[in-house]
Design goal:
The chain is of the alpha+beta class. The chain has 2 domains: 95 residues, Nucleic acid-binding proteins (OB fold (Dihydrolipoamide Acetyltransferase, E2P), Beta Barrel), CATH 2.40.50; 182 residues, Hypothetical protein af1432 (Orthogonal Bundle), CATH 1.10.3210. It is built from 13 helices and 7 strands. The strands form 2 sheets. It has a 5-stranded mixed beta barrel. A two-stranded antiparallel ribbon has the order 6-7. β6 and β7 form a beta hairpin. α1 runs parallel beside α4 and α5 crosses α10. The longest helix is centred in the last third of the chain and has 25 residues. It is globular, with a radius of gyration of 30 Å. The C terminus is likely disordered.
């Protein structure tokens, strides 16, 4: 079993561990020498790592998405753990258990898939159900859907994350459709199909990255292509209903500047956008709090996607005991600092010289004020 995991790293300890290289940068010191700046990770998170010395020995030995074994010292930099690497080597795939290095849903993918198929089987509109069945009966789509993340890093960025996200949205859709009295069958169809293009937009066999189709076309256009392909086998599918389904896919980002070519223009499309946005943001905040590596304070680091840090509620409500330190004067001399001659000025550069005219006038004023108080 892999040990230690990223979330088990403790400051001021030398560790030997195995990690996946999430990023690799070759940088230059002020002296001109090269050093490595790495982001290493496993299924529990990521840690910043630096290799300052003996870099030439390993510079070409590994690349991003390789597994490496490292020995180094865990330190604290900017309130976060940082690993200073002393030795490292590239590992062969046969030396590792892949499940130790890639985050995945806590739910069983097969169980989630059965839940999704049962939900689709319950859709009353025969045309919509036939479209979804045609999509999910496709072996390649089904295999990818069970494994794909919902995003590269923003939300549900773990194996089977897309399936978990879709099922979460299905639960929300049932509640919202009843409350707002909209067409549940149409809303659920939009939920299942809105992100289905991500199964081809992303690579997730090793690390998470964009495929060529993802870079060039994007998941919205990929989904439109997938729907068109399946509809060729459903000649009786109503054209107007097809337009509604396509509009929900095109508009689910909700804003032109967020990548949707159209704004949501009917209730089910608008509801899909807001449910999708809420579910993704709630998962992003959960992951931010759970994976944050800030060692002190009750707030996480700033999250660019959420445009804010997040409050660590448990640490806020149950703060650790405050650190107390004895005053240096008391600890060293056994007496408390006294007012007057023993009290150091706030800043020596601002303290009046004892032999200056200003100091003499100040002493006279103080003595005069003290005499007035005694009267």
């Amino acid at each position: 079993m892999k040990s230690p995991y990223v979330n088990e790293l403790e400051p001021n300890k030398v560790i030997t561990g195995c990690f996946l290289v999430h990023s690799k940068e070759i940088r230059q010191k002020r002296t001109g020498e090269l050093y490595l700046s790495l982001l290493l990770g496993d299924r529990t998170g990521e840690v910043d790592a630096k290799m300052w010395d003996n870099v030439a020995e390993v510079l070409e030995a590994f690349e991003r998405d390789d597994f490496v074994k490292v020995k180094g010292l865990v330190q604290v930099f900017h309130n976060r753990p940082q690993l200073t690497i002393h030795k490292m080597r590239r590992m062969d795939d046969s030396e590792v258990e892949f499940s130790d290095y890639f985050p995945s849903s806590k739910r069983d993918p097969q169980e989630m898939w059965r839940d999704l198929r049962a939900l689709v089987a319950g859709i009353g509109n025969g045309h919509l159900r036939a479209l979804l069945d045609a999509m999910l009966d496709d072996d390649d789509i089904a295999r990818r859907f069970r494994v794909a993340p919902a995003a590269k890093q923003i939300h549900h960025a773990f194996l089977s994350g897309l399936l978990e996200h879709v099922l979460s949205l299905c639960a929300l859709a049932r509640l919202a459709a009843a409350h707002y009295q909209v067409d549940l069958d149409l809303l659920l169809t939009g939920v299942v199909l809105h992100d289905i293009g991500k199964i081809y937009e992303l690579n997730y066999e090793r690390g998470f990255s964009y495929s060529p189709d993802g870079q060039l076309i994007g998941h919205i256009n990929i989904a439109m292509r997938m729907v068109a392909d399946k509809l060729r086998g459903l000649p009786d599918f109503p054209p107007a209903l097809r337009t509604l389904v396509e509009h929900m896919i095109l508009s689910h980002h909700g804003h032109l500047e967020f990548g949707s070519p159209k704004l949501p223009q009917f209730p089910e499309a608008l509801l899909l956008h807001y449910l999708d946005d809420m579910d993704s943001k709630m998962e992003a905040m959960r992951a931010l709090i759970e994976n944050d590596r800030q060692l002190e304070g009750c707030f996480t680091s700033f999250n660019a996607a959420l445009e804010r840090p997040a409050l660590k509620m448990d640490r806020f409500m149950n703060p650790p005991p405050a650190r107390t330190a004895a005053p240096p004067a008391a600890a060293e001399t056994g007496r408390q600092p006294q007012a007057g001659a023993d009290a150091a000025p706030a800043h020596r550069a601002l303290a009046p010289k004892s032999d200056s005219p200003f100091a003499g006038k100040l002493r006279e004023a103080l003595h005069s004020a003290a005499a007035d108080q005694e009267k």
